[in-house]
Write a structure and sequence with these properties.
By secondary structure, this protein is mainly α. Helix content is 58%, strand content 0%.
């Protein structure tokens, strides 16, 4: 897994590569598919391997012909942020690289995506099934559907059972008066969801606060240009809102994180790009969702901007 990341020529089987493209695809796919399981198993070496793995995954070139490359790489990075042994080291390295000079804009966006994915996973808000489990479940469902298909005669397709199927002409269960029986429901008790542990509540300060600081203080050169790019600003606002929501009311660092997030909202609620303005409103909604309205009300200038935004942002239907 920690072997040298394939270069562009090696990945395509060019002149500088002694490995055929099919072997490269198989090796990279096997490595990316194996990392989540190894990370979540929690080996003792994971603390030392977290940063080298993140470095290799982040700098890994796309492999032609590997259709699931982006999904597998994103899942591998997310697993390193979720695993207890590598979480802090992986978050520290990825946030540091978020403001590095020699990183592409796509990889900066990838860092924001994996931070949000890990927060959802740690807070039990993730609705995404593990790719391998989803594929296995789909295969099992297809097999079961094929095995249990009913033939026109009433028997199961592919079954050798001799049990007779119930007759289609069997009379329905009727009362003496010839009517179907009715069942009256006197009460319905809603089924409450079981409380789940939010492991991200205590990690909010290790994700959100360093991320905002790094965005405000990037490296010189290309990193400064990327930090001002509207697409990256919008993604940062969305990621910050997701991190706040996953941290929830019970996070011990809710107020500190909310104060930092209010600064982001105030700086971009009047941005020239509509996408950035709406992303800042999304972040504002997450602040109100976790009960941090006090941080919003303590900034009267922001309230004035929000009042003006109500006149400019809605479409004709909302007006």
């Amino acid at each position: 897994v920690l072997g040298a990341a394939p270069s562009a020529s090696a990945a395509s089987g060019g002149a500088g590569s002694s490995e055929p493209p099919t072997a490269v695809r198989a090796r990279v796919e096997a490595s990316l598919s194996t990392i989540p399981g190894l990370a979540l198993a929690g080996p003792k070496e994971l603390v030392q391997l977290a940063e080298p793995l993140c470095r290799q995954l982040l700098r890994l070139n796309n492999v032609p012909g590997l259709e699931d490359f982006a999904r597998l790489r994103r899942g591998a990075l997310t697993s390193l942020l979720v695993a207890d042994g590598s979480r802090r080291a992986a978050a520290r390295y990825l946030i540091s690289e978020f403001g590095a000079e020699d990183l592409t804009l796509a990889n900066r966006l990838l860092i924001l995506d994996v931070l949000a994915d890990a927060a959802r996973e740690l807070s039990n808000r993730s609705s995404v099934v593990a790719p391998a489990a989803a594929e296995a479940a789909a295969t099992a469902a297809t097999t079961a559907s094929a095995a249990c298909r009913v033939s026109p005669g009433g028997s199961l397709a592919g079954s050798t059972s001799t049990v007779a199927a119930p007759s289609a002409e069997a009379p329905p269960n009727l009362t003496d008066s010839g009517e179907r029986p009715r069942t009256r429901r006197f009460a319905s008790v809603p089924r409450e969801k079981l409380a789940q542990l939010n492991r991200f509540a205590g990690e909010l300060r290790n994700f959100l606060l360093p991320l905002i600081v790094r965005w405000r203080k990037p490296d010189s050169g290309a990193a400064e240009w990327a930090a001002a790019d509207p697409s990256l600003i919008g993604a940062l606002l969305q990621c910050s809102g997701t991190l706040l929501e996953c941290g929830g009311h019970a996070s011990p660092d809710r107020d500190t994180a909310a104060e930092a997030a209010v600064g982001l909202v105030g700086a971009h609620v009047s941005h020239a790009e509509p996408h950035v303005r709406r992303c800042s409103l999304f972040l504002l909604s997450r602040l109100l969702l976790i009960g941090a309205e006090g941080a919003v009300l303590s900034h009267p200038v922001l309230l004035d901007r929000l009042e003006a935004a109500l006149l400019h942002e809605p479409d004709n239907t909302c007006r």
